[in-house]
Specification:
The protein is α/β, with parallel strands linked by helices. It has 16 helices and 14 strands. It has helices spanning 15-24, 36-43, 54-63, 96-105, 125-134, 159-165, 175-185, 198-229, 233-240, 263-270, 276-300, 326-336, 362-366, 379-382, 386-392, 407-412, and strands spanning 5-9, 28-32, 67-70, 78-81, 114-117, 146-150, 168-172, 193-197, 307-311, 340-344, 357-358, 371-374, 397-400, 416-419. The strands form two sheets. An eight-stranded mixed β-sheet has the order 3-2-1-4-5-6-7-8, sandwiched between helices. Strands 11-10-9-12-13-14 form a six-stranded parallel β-sheet. Helix 5 (125-134) links the parallel strand 5 (114-117) and strand 6. Helix 8 (198-229) crosses helix 10 and helix 8 packs parallel to helix 11. The chain starts with a strand and ends in an 8-residue tail after the last strand. The chain binds ligand SAJ. Residues 120, 152-156, 208-209, 212, 216, 249-250, 252, 255-257, 259-260, 315-316, 326 line the site of ligand SAJ.
């Protein structure tokens, strides 16, 4: 099946790169976002998301004449829904954007169209939520139009490469829908495209991020145990990973972002009685900022009144994304413990946490600090010269939550360095 025109609903982290990539591969794309600001920013040639290479890609898409941005959909050959699916306070999937995007397609749906859901969604969303809404058009799913689920799997920071190179799992509400969707993504996907049914494809996406969450949880639990046993967890993980079938991930201050710490809840919510391990892993990772803060307090000998330079606020290294960031949660907890915190986040200079001061340079963050804490392993923090840090701050206490700093070098520079997961050994 071939497609000439496409409508991508939702121009966020996934929708914008997807729309632009389709456009640079010869498909006429209407990118739709209900947020007027997003539409305006894009029309002015700007990009509202920081992702390596994205601005260049979006500009190339506009230059090709194949990308247009609108506030509502129009009749096209295929629709791709790439809107957010947040989690509610009580850890349930909030499908309001999927519902409203599907509803906005209804007046424009024509016989022969393909509709694709890309948003990470609870199992059965395509069949139980999207299909009935689209059928309000009077057209029958599988007979008059096709419907499929096709999740992205791209890693923020490497989105443009992974969009093209990663394998895709596409699930149709029937075989013809899956094949039509595969033909659409073949426009630019070089990786394998595997075909299955829609509900399996939805579950696959959730399983991937849940697997990662559970594996990070075990790394965090090993770190806590190592602190108590008196072992260096980083060394222990490196040694365990020499085993050909072991690949333990890295402990840290917790799990953030909009995927790994959200998606497992969709499975827990779908089958609460059969999700004990997944729920527990979520709780371990959500408890990690608290654990890290307590460790910091114990090793520093109290937090009250201490001036602390907190390095990094984003949810992981070398990106500008602050969503659900465990680093921000640690800063909140430090403030609650009455520490005086200056944060320095080179990727989002002006942002901070209520009650903390946002420093615009490393030097100003360190200026009066009693202690420095590494919260995000940005490249520029991992390669910091501790001698220079020592000159910039009066205190000599450092806490590394990422296992990133060269312990010998920091100690030689006069620091008392504590590392998450490195327990002190008595004899
Ligand atoms: N983290 C650790 N230790 C690790 C790895 C990660 O503490 O060893 C933390 C990070 O610091 C971060 C969080 O986990 O706070 C999540 O980061 P991530 O790099 O694991 O994942 P995301 O959220 O940036 O992207 C994930 C990816 N999923 C998997 O790797 C299974 C990506 O491929 C998905 O496309 C993306 O979620 C998504 O959109 O679903």
């Amino acid at each position: 099946m071939s497609f000439e025109t496409l409508c991508v609903l939702g121009l966020g982290y996934i929708g914008l790169p997807t729309a632009s990539t389709f456009a640079t591969h010869g498909i006429r794309v209407i990118g739709v976002d209900v947020d007027q600001r997003v539409v305006n920013v894009l029309r002015n040639g700007e990009v509202h998301i920081q992702e390596p290479g994205l601005r260049t890609l979006v500009q190339a898409a506009f230059r090709s004449g194949n990308l247009q941005v609108r506030e509502s959909p129009e009749p096209v050959d295929a629709f791709v829904i790439a809107v957010p699916t947040p989690v509610t306070q009580d850890k349930r999937a909030d499908l309001k954007y999927v519902v409203s995007a599907s509803e906005s397609v209804v007046p424009h749906l024509r016989a022969g169209n393909l509709v694709v859901l890309e948003s990470t969604s609870p199992p059965r969303t395509t069949i139980d939520v999207v299909a009935p809404i689209l059928e309000r058009s009077g057209l029958r799913v599988g007979e008059d139009f096709q419907l499929a689920y096709s999740a992205e799997r791209v890693l923020p920071g490497q989105i443009l490469r992974e969009l093209i190179e990663n394998a895709r799992v596409i699930g149709g509400i029937d075989r013809a829908s899956a094949e039509a969707c595969r033909d659409l993504y073949r426009t630019f996907v070089l990786g394998e495209i595997a075909i299955t049914d829609a509900t399996t494809a939805e579950m696959v996406k959730l399983m991937e991020n849940t697997f990662r969450d559970v594996n990070i949880a075990i790394a965090n639990e090993f770190a806590r145990q190592a602190d108590h046993i008196g072992v260096d967890v980083w060394e222990a993980i490196r040694l365990a990973n020499l085993h050909p079938r072991i690949n333990i991930l890295n402990p840290g201050p917790g799990v953030g972002g909009h995927c790994v710490c959200v998606d497992p809840w969709f499975l827990v919510d779908a089958v609460p009685d059969q999700s004990a391990l997944i729920r527990q892993a979520r709780e371990v990772n959500d408890g990690q900022p608290g654990y890290v803060t307590r460790r910091f307090e114990e090793t520093l000998g109290g937090l009250k009144g201490k001036r602390i330079a907190a390095l990094g606020l984003t949810y992981k290294s070398d990106i500008d994304d602050l969503r659900e960031s465990p680093a921000m949660e640690v800063v909140r907890l430090l403030i609650r413990a009455k520490a005086e915190v200056r944060t320095y986040e080179p990727f989002v200079l002006t942002s901070s946490v209520k009650g903390a001061e946002a420093a615009i340079s490393l030097e100003s963050a360190l200026e009066e600090a009693d202690a420095v804490v590494l919260l995000v392993d940005h490249h520029e923090f991992c390669t910091l010269d501790p001698q220079i840090v020592a000159q910039a701050m009066p205190g000599r206490f450092a806490f590394d939550t990422r296992g990133a700093w060269d312990r010998e070098a920091w100690r030689q520079a006069g620091f008392q360095l504590h590392v998450l997961g490195v327990g002190e050994r008595d004899g």
